[in-house]
Every structure is written in structure tokens, then in C-alpha cells.
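Sequence and fold
=================
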Amino acid sequence: MLAAVQSPVVSSLLPVVLLIAAGYFAGRRRWVGVGSIKDLSNLIFMLLAPALLFRAMSSVHVEQLSFRPVAAYFIAAFVIVAGTIAWRGFNRTAVVLALANTFSNTVMIGVALIGLAYGPEGMVVLLTLISLHSVVLLTTATVLLELAVAREHTANGGKAHRSMAHTVALAVRNAILHPVPLPIIAGLLFAQTGLAIPEFIDRPLLLLGQAFSPVALVMVGITLALTPVGLHLRGAMTQALVKNLVHPALTLLFGWMLGVTGLPLTVMVIAAALPIGANVFLFSQRYRTAEDLVTASVVVSTLLALVTLTAVVGLANRL
């Protein structure tokens, strides 16, 4: 029993599982109500995450970054997006579900897991992905959704109301001016100056960043406790299996094809195996499609990740 707990896989995931369980318990006890979820989410994304991400990237130089591992992740994601749309047809629901199949919870769970398991070296690889994750996937989803809406509007006898150039520009702006990519870009730009963060600023940033992982993981547990899966279990399980298993399998395949090995490949495969990220909620709500299914899919994907992530981390550590 003790040997099992001391294994690299279990020891890296056990703190994540226990923090999520603590949040689930707090949610079930109603220590945190439904009305407080948005406030906690804002605290995490608007304060704790930017402090962690800016400080992590403030000493990283561009020449240290490798984009081939990230390319493997995105090629796998685009193959899944294309396959989902081909299967379900080109419509708003298909695009939102394609996003759910490919958009990982890289911040709330990924940062905590990779930081605990692989330290600063693994974090640099993950943050390279995070710096592009929202920009690439959310911009692509926005453009596809706007095209689907325009197609529906035209089919109903309406006229196109927004140019594609305007749609793309708006999507790129919204993806960059976001509390996750923006501090990463700012930190990376600061690193190129060769300056060091003054101690009186660095210390608060360190403390805020250290609070991120436990608070974020507890928040995941609270959300799980307060979110009903409803009647969408079968569809949610399909979505979760694609996200948690198919995405990392394809990332591994394309990583090998691109010659990616070692820690970069390990981190990308684990990132692809992370459960569905919360931003998919926002897209389903904004475009009023598959809201219940997406909610159930995030819950099932996160619960299933307790098993699938253990398996993927174990495999990835052998790469």
C-alpha cells in the first residue's frame, strides 16, 4: 500500500484528487453556495492565474521554447474537430461539441498537475501550450460558430450581417485579451528585457501563484458537487472518452511523427488527456446550443479523468 502511494503516478495525482474531493465535500455541505461560484471563478482567473502565469514566464526566453510539441497537440485537435463536424454536420451544436472534444482544462487542473509532477521544466512546456491554447482553439471555434450562425441565418432567408474579416479580428482580440494568454505574453515580453522582478513585487506574486493550484482544484470539486449530470450521461460519456483518450492518443501519434520525445512529448500527451475546460460552457451558453450536454460532459470528463489521467500519466512517464 505504501509503495503504491509512493509511485510517481499516484504521488503526482493524489494531491489533485484529494483537493478536488475536499471541494466536492464543501460543495455537498453547501459551505459554498451556487451564487458564490462566479465570484470564486473570477478570483481564480482574474487574480491568482495571472500572478502565477506572469511570474512563471518572466524568466523564460523565447529561444528556450519549443513549438513542435505544441504542433502535435493542435494537429490532433484539428483532426478531431474536422471529424466531429464531418460526423454531426456543419452547425452550431457540432462546433461546440468539437470544441468540447479538444479544449483541455490546462489551467485549473493542468498547471497544478504538471507543476506537482514535473516541476519548472515541465511548466515551461505546458505554458508554451497555454499561451496559444485559447488563442488557437477559441478563435477557430468562434470563426466556425459565426460561419454556422451566418449559414443558418441565410438558410432562413436572412442576410449576412458581419464580414469574415471582422469576425476573425474580433475572435483574435477576445482570445488575446483574456486573463490566461495576456499575462503569459506580458511575462514573456518582460523576460526579453533581461530585468528581474523587484523582490517587493515578486514575493506577493509568488504567494498569489502558490494559492492558485489548491484554490482552483477545490473549485473544480465544488463545481462537480453543484452540477447535475441529468439525462445526458450517454452522450456525455462519449464526449468524455473522445477528450480523455482519443485526443492524447492522436497527440502521441503526431508527436512521434514530428520527432518529439522525452518530457515535451510527455507533457503534451498529459495536456491532451486533461478533462474538458470550462470555456466550453461559455460557448454553449453564448450560442445557445447543447448547454445541458456540455455541462454533463464537463462533469463526466472530470470524474473520468481521475481514472484515465492515472493511466495516461503512467504511460507518458514511459515515453
